[in-house]
């Protein structure tokens, strides 16, 4: 049975084959018990308890859906302000290299937020270098070429398109793909027109008077 607690699709591994598979209630139960036993940090050890799941998937599932101490609601202005200050401080110390930002360390300054949440909030909403708004033809062409070469690996695709995020690339690609599909319209069924017919009168033979 698929878990109802904010389940989402992730890659699952079986031998050399990878496929998308939602977390099940059984997997969630195994994950919760493993975290209770080993703690919320030993993800390599925890993943061994859940067949087909990687340490990164277990960590993401725990912090993103099952950890009750993590705040999953909207970000407040105070949280945004703290995040912006922390990111600016870190950028000054690492020559503005956003790929080296220590998100888990930054998250320690914002109670009940994870490193993944901080990274997502910055890249999707607060980063001033991210371009928002309509895509132009040049960006669309870059996106097509990148997806053709790299597939739907949005981390790598986003690196090929300046000032666009993974989510923006995925959303735009879905829009392009949907516009390519011809709309399936049901042909209107028209009934043949029938002209009204006048009722026909039937003449019955007269009954002889002798039989009355």
Automatic annotation (TrEMBL):
InterPro entries (alphabetical): Homeodomain-like_sf (IPR009057), Myb-like_DNA-bd (IPR051575), Myb_dom (IPR017930), SANT/Myb (IPR001005)
One GO CC annotation: snRNA-activating protein complex
Transmembrane region(s): none
Low complexity bias spans: 185-205
A single MF term (Gene Ontology): RNA polymerase II cis-regulatory region sequence-specific DNA binding
Stored PROSITE patterns: HTH_MYB, MYB_LIKE
Spans annotated as Disordered: 174-212
Superkingdom, natural source: Eukaryota
Pfam families listed in its UniProt record: Myb_DNA-bind_6, Myb_DNA-binding
Keyword DNA-binding in record: yes
GO biological process, one term: snRNA transcription by RNA polymerase II
Domain HTH myb-type intervals: 21-70, 72-126, 127-181
Keywords assigned: DNA-binding, Nucleus, Repeat, Transcription, Transcription regulation
SMART domains named among the record's database cross-references: SANT
Every Myb-like domain range: 22-66, 67-126, 127-177
Keyword Coiled coil (UniProt): no
Name the UniProt record assigns to this protein: Homeodomain-like protein
Species the sequence originates in: Hesseltinella vesiculosa
């Amino acid at each position: 049975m698929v878990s109802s607690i904010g389940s989402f699709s992730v890659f699952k591994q079986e031998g050399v084959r990878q496929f998308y598979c939602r977390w099940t209630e059984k997997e969630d139960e195994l994950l919760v018990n493993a975290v209770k036993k080993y703690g919320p940090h030993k993800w390599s050890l925890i993943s061994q308890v859940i067949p087909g799941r990687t340490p990164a998937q277990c960590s993401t599932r725990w912090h993103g859906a099952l950890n009750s101490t993590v705040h999953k609601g909207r970000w407040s202005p105070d949280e945004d302000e703290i995040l912006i200050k922390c990111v600016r401080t870190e950028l000054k110390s690492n020559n503005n290299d956003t790929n080296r930002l220590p998100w888990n360390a930054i998250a320690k300054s914002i109670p009940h937020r994870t490193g993944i949440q901080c990274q997502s909030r910055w890249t999707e909403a607060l980063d001033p270098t991210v371009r928002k708004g309509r895509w132009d033809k040049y960006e669309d062409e870059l996106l097509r070429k990148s997806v053709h070469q790299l597939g739907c690996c949005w981390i790598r695709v986003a690196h090929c398109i300046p000032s666009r995020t993974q989510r923006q690339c995925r959303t735009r690609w879905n829009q392009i793909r949907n516009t390519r599909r011809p709309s399936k319209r049901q042909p209107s069924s028209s009934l043949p027109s029938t002209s009204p017919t006048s009722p026909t009168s039937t003449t019955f033979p007269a009954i002889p008077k002798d039989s009355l």
